[in-house]
Write a structure and sequence with these properties.
Elements lengths: L1 H25 L5 H9 L22 E2 L6 E2 L2 E11 L2 H14 L3 E11 L5 E12 L3 H10 L4 H4 E10 L1 H27 L3 H33 E10 L14 H59 L9
Parallel strand pairs: 3-7
Antiparallel strand pairs: 1-2, 3-6, 4-5, 5-7
Length: 319
């Protein structure tokens, strides 16, 4: 009976090693997110997935939709934009309500105060929401509409997408393999009678259970991230970018050129002063001072020589 148990465990070890090699060869590029998740849970690498069969719903290029039989791409879409509105606080509340109405939610929001060029204090806000992916474009249209004139008051916008179909498929395959391996260990655990066999199988099963939990968590995250898109909005007040207006006249071009010219002059003048104080003055002091005294001494000497040549009588003492 003891030999039978040892033989059974030996067969299991060989089966594990063979399955590990097959899984590594089947996946050309490891999923870095899942690898990091597994490592963070305690370097659970002692037991590799046992079966090599992939799940029926997964393919090498995507996930098969059970209803249509077509390949379903798993794509994470996110967007960000900066808008100008009359009242950032009100627009912030409108965007948060918009997310809830679309079946999404608010991730975070923030409000603060800033100042216009005239010194007036105005609010500024930022918010990140998540909405269903199929409502991304319509939600962006609604947010842009809050400005009144999107062509003029949407100052920045970007939409990005990340195709995680291959990574998602690999996670599904690994999860199926791990679950099948856990089922095999459960059967062996139920049949084991010797204490050391029970402990060995139990330890392997615990490691498998933790790996399954990590992969399930990553799959759940990918599903949520792909089903709901994140939209980050920076909300500024229109007053912060309003041009100077005098009776319908907007001297923005000339004023901007004049201000730029003044700034250029001040910049050049300050640069000149810096060079003068740091470079020119020390050079004048180090080189100019000895040169000045040398020239003065030469002039006095020349005057004395000329006086001797002319044999000028000494001047009488003034009383």
């Amino acid at each position: 009976m003891k030999k039978k148990r040892l033989l059974l465990l030996s067969v299991l070890c060989v089966f594990v090693l063979a399955s590990c090699a097959s899984v590594q060869s089947a996946t050309s590029m490891p999923d870095s997110r899942t690898t990091n998740a597994v490592k963070s849970s305690g370097e659970l690498q002692a037991f590799a997935p046992v079966p090599t069969a992939a799940p029926a719903a997964a393919s090498s290029s995507g996930v098969t939709d059970a209803t249509t039989g077509t390949i379903k791409q798993i794509v994470i879409q996110n967007a960000s934009l900066t808008i100008l509105v009359d009242d950032p606080t009100k627009s912030l509340a409108d965007i948060m309500k918009m997310a809830a109405d679309e079946g999404g939610f608010t991730v975070n929001s923030n409000t603060s105060q800033t100042y216009t060029t005239s010194g007036a204090q105005v609010p500024v806000a930022s918010v990140t929401i998540r909405v269903p992916s199929d409502q991304l474009n319509s939600t962006l249209d609604q947010i842009r509409a809050l400005t009144g004139d999107p062509a003029k008051f949407v100052t920045d916008q970007s939409v990005s997408g990340q195709d995680i179909t291959q990574e998602y498929t690999d996670l599904q395959s690994r999860l199926t393999n791990l679950q099948q391996a856990a089922d095999e260990l459960t059967k062996m655990y139920d049949k084991a009678t010797k204490t050391e066999d029970i402990l060995a199988i139990y330890n392997q099963k615990m490691q498998l259970t933790e790996q399954i939990a990590v992969i399930k968590g990553q799959i759940q995250y990918d599903e949520q991230a792909s089903s709901k898109s994140a939209i980050s909005v920076q909300i500024n007040a229109k007053a912060t970018s309003q041009p100077i207006t005098v009776a319908g006249w907007q001297p923005t071009g000339i004023a901007r050129q004049a201000i730029q010219a003044l700034l250029d002059f001040l910049k050049g003048f300050v640069n000149f002063l810096i060079w003068l104080v740091i470079l020119v003055l020390p050079i004048l002091i180090v080189i100019g001072a000895p040169l000045y005294f040398l020239i003065r001494w030469l002039v006095r000497r020349r005057k004395a020589k000329i006086a001797r040549q002319n044999q000028l009588p000494p001047l009488p003492n003034e009383k």
